[in-house]
Amino acid sequence: MAPKAEQESHVSGTEAKKRTSTTTARTPRTRQKQAGSGATSVAQVRLRPDELADLQQVMQTLKLHSLSDALREGLRLLSREATEVAAAREIRDFYRGDQAPTPAGVLPATAEELAAADEIEW
What we know:
Layout: H1 4-7, H2 13-26, H3 29-36, H4 49-62, H5 67-94, H6 111-119
């Protein structure tokens, strides 16, 4: 969908140009950088009331100013986690299921330590 200024350009070309330039002048510098770095896309997400309440609490805690900021941060964290999972899979494949060697001076984890790590939720 074209920006509002472009949508209205068929009505009055000069008005649309004026609106575009004044909008750009009022746009924060960070937003201009994002717009200049490539095309953006709009995505929709359907949230249950409890999920929205959790998201709003997260936004307050992390001082995120919009739902878009919060969702982008969530996607950034998911991307980081996916990268870590892929790296772990690559290491496991490299060692063909054997335990990877530990650095010098580091003892291998005990069965109890591994079980405790498996119980941790975050």
